[in-house]
Amino acid sequence: MGIRVINVKVRGGEAKPAPPLAPAIEKLGLDVNKVVEDINKATEKYKGFEVAVKLIVDENTKEYEIEVKPPTTTELLLKAVGASEPSGDPMHQKIGDLPFEKIVEIAILKKPSLNAKTLKAAVKTILGSARSIGITVDGKDPKQVTKEVEEGLYDAVLAKYEEEWEKA
């Protein structure tokens, strides 16, 4: 006996104590309802998205750890603008517009999977993704918004989210 890993996809905050999850958990001698409850807590902030969950179980102690892989940046951006797919021609055909604050919120959600050390760097990454799929930000090309972020024009907005970034 050692470490067992179970990989599943669940809708954020909506895992159910049913197959394929329940039998795999039961087989390891864990309380299915408790594990599902913990998975739902861990995935709650991704409500409406399908996320990959890795359940790492120590078969000896029955202790477990839950790792959640957040949705892709593209998925988060598309859902935010209500689009089903990226623009085929993002420079000329826009699929939607988002407020800068929404870009910041997505950056915070993506923190675990981004290599960004600061909120400002994470926001610039998300702005690049928005541009590549045809989304404008506050009615502007995300490239322009990125320049404005670098110039400090959004520092006050970013400061409001700094604490949330640190906790993420």
* pLDDT < 50 stretches: none
CATH fold name of the largest domain, please? Arc Repressor Mutant, subunit A
How many helical elements?
7
- Secondary structure class reads alpha+beta
Instruction: State the share of residues found in helices, binned by percent.
Output: 40-55%
Reported for the largest beta sheet, the result is: 3 strands, antiparallel
Written account of the structure:
By secondary structure, the protein is an alpha+beta fold. It folds into 2 domains: 3-69, Ribosomal protein L11/L12, N-terminal domain (Ribosomal protein L11, N-terminal domain, 2-Layer Sandwich); 73-167, Arc Repressor Mutant, subunit A. Helix content is 45%, strand content 18%. The protein is built from 7 helices and 5 strands; from the N terminus they run E-H-H-E-E-H-E-H-H-E-H-H. The protein has helices at 21-27, 32-43, 73-81, 100-110, 119-133, 142-150, 155-167; strands spanning 3-11, 50-58, 64-69, 96-98, 135-137. A 3-stranded antiparallel beta sheet has the order 1-2-3, with helices on one face. Strands 4-5 form a two-stranded parallel sheet. Helix 3 runs antiparallel to helix 4 (100-110). The model has no long low-confidence stretch (mean pLDDT 94).
Main features:
Ribosomal protein L11, N-terminal domain; rRNA-binding; Arc Repressor Mutant, subunit A; ribonucleoprotein; ribosomal protein; alpha+beta; 3-stranded antiparallel beta sheet; elongated; RNA-binding; 168 residues
